[in-house]
Amino acid sequence: MARIVFDLDGTLIDSAPDIRLAANGALEGTGAAPLSLAETRGFVGAGAAIFVTRMMAARGLPDGMHGDLLHRFVARYEGAVHLTEIYPGAAEVLAELKGQGHRMGLCTNKPIAPTRAVLAHLDLARFFEVVIGGDSLSVRKPDPAPLRAALDALGEGVPIYVGDSEVDAETALRADVAFMLYTQGYRSTPVDELAHHAAFADWSEVPGLVTDLTG
Question: How far is it, in rounded angstroms, from Cα 185 to Cα 10?
Answer without folding.
Answer: 4
